[in-house]
Amino acid sequence: MDGNLVPIILFISLFGSVFGIVYVAVTARNKERLALIEKGMDSSIFKASETHGRYNALKWGLVIVGVGIGLILGNIFDMNGIMDEEVAYFAMTLVFGGFGLLLYYLLIRKIKPEMGD
Q1: Helical H runs in the chain?
Q2: DSSP 67
Q3: Is 112 helix (H, G, I), strand (E, B) or coil?
Q4: Fewer Cβ atoms within 10 A, N terminus or C terminus of the chain?
Q5: Beta strands of the chain (E only): which ranges?
């Protein structure tokens, strides 16, 4: 009975932690925006973050595809004995995830030159 209880408690505490972090982040952002609006400050800082938000799906898509390619290449390196298992997966995931972010930067710079510089 005790062996089955540990994963359940671990899952609940992890879910609670993630929920708490997201809740605090959202409420803090909301309070910050309301305070700026009450003081009558310019709302241009909100628009600056929204321009990159338009391409947010592209960024995360490229990162996830890069991580996937890195995992596949890490598996190939592991199976062929080129690298140790831990090193192959970890290194290839980070390298290709980074390549995804670099590709995103290059694409955004080409789409909107004023955003990339």
Answers
A1: 2-38, 44-53, 56-79, 85-111, 113-116
A2: H
A3: coil
A4: N
A5: none
pTM: 0.56
What is the number of other CB atoms lying within 10 angstroms of the CB of residue 73? 19
The residue written with tokens 């310019």 in the block is 42
Which amino acid is located at 3 in the chain? G
Could you tell me if 66 and 104 are in contact, meaning their C-beta atoms sit under 8 angstroms apart? no
Residue among 101, 31, 23, 22 nearest 60 (CA): 101
For the cut 80, the answer to whether the pLDDT of residue 102 exceeds it is yes
- The values of phi and psi at residue 54, to 5°, are -65, -30
The residue ranges of every structural domain in the chain are: 1-41, 49-111
pLDDT in tens, 21-32: 999 999 998 888
pLDDT in tens, 7-57: 888 888 988 999 999 999 999 988 888 888 888 877 666 665 555 667 888
Whole-angstrom distance, CA of residue 97 vs CA of residue 108: 17
